[in-house]
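Mods, move this if it's the wrong board.
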Amino acid sequence: MLILSKRFMELMGFTGMNIRKLIKDGFIIRKPMITHSRSRIRKVKEARTKGREFEKIDKHIYSEMYMKVKGNVFKNKRVLMERIHKLKSEKGKDRSLFDQFRAKNAGKRRYQQGEEDTN
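Not the wrong board. Structure tokens:
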């Protein structure tokens, strides 16, 4: 396999058709297109905002974790992800306990209203 520079090909008199034929035959390797760094960053940023839009993490957890990451609290991404999952599970437990508490109080209120109605 031979990789030729553009300048060399100009000096040797290669034409566009000759170059395409050499690429097709495998004598010249076509380099992959290089993506610009801004487009790569844009994709990463879009993915991050989508993660917050779909409420994988809410804005409070995000801001808290962002400041901890900037302060070098987590040694790697795995530790950060474990912490996020732990916070999400704690938040889910708190929410379920709160829902149970509200249901219990609603039942008590209904019971007390029923007693008042009979008196």
